[in-house]
Amino acid sequence: MTYGNGLFVATSLDGAHRVMTSPDGVNWTAQTAAEQNTWWAVTYGNGLFVAVSGDGANRVMTSSDGVTWTARTAAAASGWNAVTYGNGLFVAVAYDGSTRVMTSGWPSLPPGAPASLVATPGNGSASISFTAGSNAGPAITKYQYKVGAGAWTDAVGTSSPITITGLTNYVTSSIRIRAVNSHGASPASAAVSVRPKVTGPSIGVAYSSGKNGAFVGFSFARPAGSILVGFTVRAYAKGTNTVVSSCQVLPNSRNCYVGSLVSGTEYDIRVQGYLRVSGSSTVRETFESATARVRINS
């Protein structure tokens, strides 16, 4: 007899019903065995009831609920009379036969380390995609991550990708992850670096064409947590990335005149904004508008 999953289960050597179950050990219900064998022993482990027999064509039967049983083929036609579960493994012994020990289940091994990490930065966060490591043991129950020399933290989800929050924008972080199953944690993955950043808005552009240049006005909402440094407005040769002319403006301005353009010619206009974070003089991020096409008046 054994207990598991909230149920007592007993097996029998003979009779019409060779399994019975009880939720409390007092009230019992007869169940039908997979085959009419002499079921000597039963155990429970890793969500499964397993019974062994000393005779019959199939000398093992299994059940996830103790009620519905499935016949299984034993490792040998021996007189199996005892079975137990421990450390991820079912072990049965026999009183006769050339093979008197058989095992089934997962070895006592944690999973292998995740590999091929790719980090995609977000606003104070990162999405880490990866390839799962080998796993000869029980199913992976969770992934954990470590930022720099910090502690291991449980991630949300049991597959790729995982999302890591609480990172500092514009600061490069080194991240490792590992997999965990019921036998322990995998080795840490190789580190991947990521530099989170503010998610900025697009820059809207409007213009009017002069004879030898273009007046360009634009709108821009500064992302929270950033300091605006200024803007550059560039005129490109149509359909290329070749800069023909440009102008720069201070953070509080939203227009400028791009001169030295040729009348009757079309140009692509784009505006680029520059940002930094508080306490730093280094430009940390740039945002560029979509392209606006303008034809200079003749």
UniProtKB/TrEMBL annotation:
Record-annotated Fibronectin type-III domain positions: 110-202
Database matches in SUPFAM superfamilies: Fibronectin type III
Gene3D superfamilies assigned to the protein according to its UniProt record, in alphabetical order: Immunoglobulins (2.60.40.10)
PROSITE patterns in alphabetical order: FN3
Protein name: Unannotated protein
Native species: freshwater metagenome
